Amino acid sequence: MRLIRAPTRLTQDRTVRRTTAPTSPSTAPEGPMFRIVLRSVFRDRHRFALPAFAVLIGVACVSGSLLYTGSLARDAERLQRASRPDVSVEVRATGERAAADEALRRRLAKLPGVAVARGTLRGWAFLVAPDGTLVGEPSADIGVDHLPGARGADPRYPMTVGRGPHGPDEVAVDRWAADLAGYRVGDRVRVVVGGEVRTARLTGVFTVDDPATAAGGTVTAFDAATARALFAPGPGRYESVTLTAAGGTSEAALAERVAAVVPRGLDVATRAELDAEAAQSPDRKKLGTILLLFAGIVLFVSVFLVGNTFSMLSALRAREHALLRAVGAGRGRVLAQVLLEAALVGAGAAVVGHVLGVGVAMLLGTLFGPAAGPANAVRPDVLAPLPLVTALCLGVGCTAVSAFLPARRAAATAPVAALRSGLPVAASASRRRSWAGGVCAVLGASALATAGEDLGVLCLATSALLAGLVLLTPLFAWGVTRVLRVPVRRLTGVRGTLALANARRDPQRTAATSGALTVCVALVGAVTVAVSSLSATAEQEAMTAVPGDLRITAVDFGEIGDGTAARVARLPHVAAAGSVREAGFGLPDGSHLWTAAVDPHAVNEGRLVGLRVRSGDLSGLSRGIAVTTDLAEERGWRVGDRVTGRRLSDPGTADGPPLDREIVAVYDGPEALGPALLPERAVTGGGRPAAGVNAVLVRAEPGRTDAAKAEIHRALRNPMLLVEDRADAARAARQGFGSLLSVLYALLSVTVVVAALGVANTMSMAVLERGREIGLLRAVGLRRADVRSMLRVEAVVVSVLGAGLGVLAGTAAGRAAAAGAGAVVGVPWVFLLAVFTGAGVIGVLAALGPGVRAARVPVTRAVGGEVG
């Protein structure tokens, strides 16, 4: 037998030097990097599933928002063109001093190149169904003027059945409204205009492609004379004058001729400019900004998940990276490989997310679209360049940015050090992180305390506070697990001890996992506290706004007729009724004074509401003005002083009728009758532009409030009017904020889902990373149920930690926002406790899958460290 001599130490040293010596580029790892990365991504596809899904959700929200707003802009431009097929140039007033009137229309009609010049009118008109309800959305119910041309037809409203209206007792309506209400030509219909219910005969049904009908509203056409009486901003004035260009005349050329003759204060717009304005609606931009803000929050939360995944993958693949470094791969190659993996994951998620964005756009159309209206489905352009490029850039960019720090740590590790299974975090880095977090948290909290009404400062302060808390989470995790060690050990035994030890082992990973929940819960808490405070304030204000037994107000976009109070006062069970009109005046010092104009006799005799007179006498109100005690002290006014100024016009300029009245009384009273009182005829008579009726206050006979309410409903038969007592007003105020909260919760729920995925992903990766540890625990007697329980406790601790910090930050931000808005701050502790408890439920659910997977792996395989 041939003896084999053992290698000498010199031989061993030479072998080691040959093995570890740097290799030339020709001996570097073989194969293109892209192929290696593809193989690696495919191999670890189950590990990338959850982070890819989180990015997919964020990209789908962004793409859906862009596709939805883009489809709205295209539809608005199409509707603008379809609803006004004969318009080449429009002349419209930009202020009160210049007007588009009949004289201007005639002058423009004589210009060369003008085929037709129309004076158009448009206002609120609400069609009432036979059962007494409104047809369509009140915010989009409009009335228009029917202007037949030489052939007896109006090209804007082509009749499909019947004819156009002639005279004040005839109307025509759009086909969708007629079908919805069940009206036919010849029926008697009711229309609410100017706060009064009008009954007219339906003479025609027309087709129209109008923004109003697209928003779920109705279009009611009146003859020209009736429309002027109902909608004209003044005698002989129009909302606008539209011109149709004659053959051979371009829009631009016609606009130049028109601009040369119109007076200053009038705007001249071509058809192309009108279409562009329709596509660039400020409300649509605001909605798009809000949707993109929520989508950005989803992507931001996804960053936590992606970064945590690549951090844990770097630890799991430390040996692989070390071998690459050992055979010649430089830091740049390892860094590029990890980033390329992230880019591939992000690109795949972006493509699928953009496709799902089509469904998100349709869902947004359902969520923010009209509750009623003709079928107007959202038609998103899937291949529109902006959403597609944005989706790809965000998907790739977010994953690459999230993976950069883990990739850099993997690339910076020396080959020999990387062969170790784990690397402790430098204490200096932890100290720097804690100091930075403390500074951010203190600055954010201080800014929140002084933010006031400044929304920008409020957002920056909240962001700084959240950033500080996230940076401090490792320190909080260490402290919380230390505090919980004794009670958890008593409740769960060794399982809880092991779970807390795992949470403390890598506090930065715990911080990254709970950080997503911190952001989500903080947003939910801030929204809840702020909206709940505003709701409580609105509820209190609504109750104080009903100083009498009942109050009659109009729904949004509706009006109260001038004769409503007189009609109500004659009803049974009504002791008194009076109108309240609001009028503003500009004072000589540049400030504004808002007054309530009322019937002076009803107020003086206390028939409507009792007022406490501090000085003077309300009997002289018909010739003077009364002011509240607070206003008198603020201005230094006394009985006998004179108040002078000018009535505010619509744009808020003090160029209306003059005010010159003596203060006859100083009083205390409800907010609805303040801060000053004028007699009603001061804002309605003498040729002055009348102030609209804001409300009608009603005093019922003793014990007959409900009967009086029923009588008012029967007498008015106007669905645009609300008859409320204090409880009704409070309930209505509450319901409005409840709807707002529902929409906000629906948007924020997506971020909560992503945060829950982050906890589940961390638990799954922890099972893979701690395979040998789990196997050893199983080998020494830990049961499968104990393994599942251990992961559950760890997930609950991480989730509750994140939720607790989120509740703290959200409550502070919500209180600051409510205080800045002047609301009565109220914290819904029960709801916040439910959110905190829900975080624990999220932890339990997130640990179910990983716990089952870890418990089912054979002990022998787990001891080998292979659990995936």
Automatic annotation (TrEMBL):
One Gene Ontology term of the molecular function aspect: transmembrane transporter activity
Biased composition range(s): Low complexity: 18-29
UniProtKB keywords: Cell membrane, Membrane, Transmembrane, Transmembrane helix
UniProt xrefs under InterPro entries: ABC3_permease_C, Macrolide_Exporter_MacB
Region of interest (Disordered), residue spans: 1-29
Name this polypeptide is given: ABC transporter
Segments forming domain ABC3 transporter permease C-terminal: 293-413, 747-857
Listed GO CC annotations: plasma membrane
Membrane topology: Multi-pass membrane protein
Top-rank taxon, per record: Bacteria
A Pfam family assignment: FtsX
Subcellular location, record wording: Cell membrane
Similarity annotation: Belongs to the ABC-4 integral membrane protein family.
Sequence intervals crossing the membrane: 48-68, 290-313, 334-364, 384-405, 433-449, 455-480, 514-534, 743-768, 789-809, 829-848
